[in-house]
């Protein structure tokens, strides 16, 4: 369970004021239970963003997969032959 450090400090302070040492010991687990139970009771289970926190679409990233071969392009054989001849060893 992850709690913000300020939430832990606030829970410890409130627990100490209300219940002394025992209140301080019990306050952090109670804060963790409240953090988990409140969103669940409101219909937003932890780990899933609620309607107000829905992430926006980010930039589109190109796939790392190689392109799918399509029909041959007219004149491509001549280009390949020219490249082969230009890069061939003498």
Automatic annotation (TrEMBL):
Domain of life the protein comes from: Bacteria
Annotated region described as Disordered, given as residue ranges: 40-90
Record's compositionally biased regions (Low complexity): 40-65
Descriptive protein name: AI-2E family transporter
Organism whose genome encodes this protein: Pseudonocardia asaccharolytica DSM 44247 = NBRC 16224
């Amino acid at each position: 369970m992850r709690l913000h450090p300020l939430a832990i400090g606030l829970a410890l302070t409130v627990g100490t004021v209300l219940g002394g040492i025992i209140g301080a010991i019990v306050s952090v687990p109670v804060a963790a239970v409240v953090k988990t139970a409140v969103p669940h009771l409101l219909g937003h289970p932890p780990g899933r963003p609620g309607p107000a926190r829905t992430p926006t679409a980010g930039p589109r990233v190109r796939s790392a997969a190689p392109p799918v071969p399509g029909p041959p392009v007219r004149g491509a054989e001549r280009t390949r032959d020219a490249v082969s001849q230009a890069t061939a060893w003498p």
